[in-house]
TrEMBL record:
This is ABC transporter ATP-binding protein. Pfam families: ABC_tran. Keywords: ATP-binding, Nucleotide-binding, Transport. It comes from Pseudoalteromonas maricaloris. The keyword Transport applies. One of its GO terms (molecular function) is transmembrane transporter activity.
Length: 239
């Protein structure tokens, strides 16, 4: 198995005045290419902090994080942005689409920043909008769509850059249960196509449907899937 994410003994402390919050305490976590992993846990437990570190949006006090073999702490800000643009697609609870732009332009703009030719951009935009079933609505603006459809556009935007990793922060948090189910179906589908997905969720039922669940409690990570327990037992028996 190829490791896409390798986190060892990561600590993150937020200091505000004299108050220090230990947001992550000696976190170890490995995620392989092609996995669909959920991160769950109570409010304030450290889920977003962990996702932000994985997304190269946040630094850390100590420990090591390798994304596709590259040590994150060795990168300066520009290098981190470059790696983030190249390797990571983000999906947010609030969709983060640009209200004034058509669906087509929403997906194309990040590709312009990546320096793609217009022909390549057109192909990527069409491919990804077709995949989420919204090519016919390409000239519409986000406010002309339902919440579920907006999230599908955000997923298309994340996919269009052909990232190695998709990070989703409560992707169904603003959707009713029917729309949430259709967005989850789409995430399963793109995972089956080979995409690695890491999703933060409060919802135990959604989490239970992913291949692996990471439980975060008070900054401590516990992997609570049967697969990992089996691996640990195997490793122990080989040691
Ligand atoms: N910028 C910051 N400054 C100070 N403390 C912070 C900051 N960001 C997060 N924290 C603290 O770090 C801890 C972990 O926060 P984090 O946002 O990662 O939790 P979470 O599990 O994502 O919560 P939620 O589910 O409510 O979004 C919390 O105690 C939080 O108050």
């Amino acid at each position: 198995m190829e490791h896409l994410i390798e986190i060892k003994k990561i600590r993150k402390v937020f200091k505000t005045g004299t108050v220090a919050t230990n947001a992550l305490r000696d976190v170890d976590l490995t995620i392989n290419k092609g996995e669909f992993v959920s991160i769950k846990g109570p409010s304030g437990s450290g889920k977003s902090t962990l996702l932000n570190i994985i997304g190269l949006l946040e630094d850390y006090e100590s420990g090591s994080y390798k994304l596709d073999g590259v040590e994150a702490s060795s990168l300066n800000d520009d290098q981190a942005s470059e790696l983030r643009n190249e390797k990571i697609g983000f999906i947010f609870q609030n969709f983060n689409l640009i209200a004034e732009l058509s669906l087509y332009d929403n997906i194309e703009v990040p590709l312009i920043y990546r320096g793609m030719t217009s022909q390549e951009r057109k192909q990527r935009v069409e491919e990804s909008l077709r995949l989420v079933g919204l090519w016919g609505r390409k000239e519409h603006r986000p406010d002309q769509l339902s919440g579920g459809q907006r999230q599908r556009v955000a997923i298309a935007r994340a996919l269009a850059g052909k990232p190695s990793l998709i990070l989703a922060d409560e992707p169904t948090g603003n959707l009713d249960s029917e729309m949430a189910a259709s967005v989850m179906d789409l995430l399963y589908q793109i995972n089956e196509m080979g995409n690695t997905i890491v999703m933060v969720t409060h919802d135990d039922e959604l989490a239970s449907k992913t291949q692996r669940q990471i439980q975060v409690t008070d900054g401590v990570v516990k992997q609570c899937d049967t697969e990992t327990e089996l691996l640990k037992e195997q490793e122990a028996s080989y040691a």
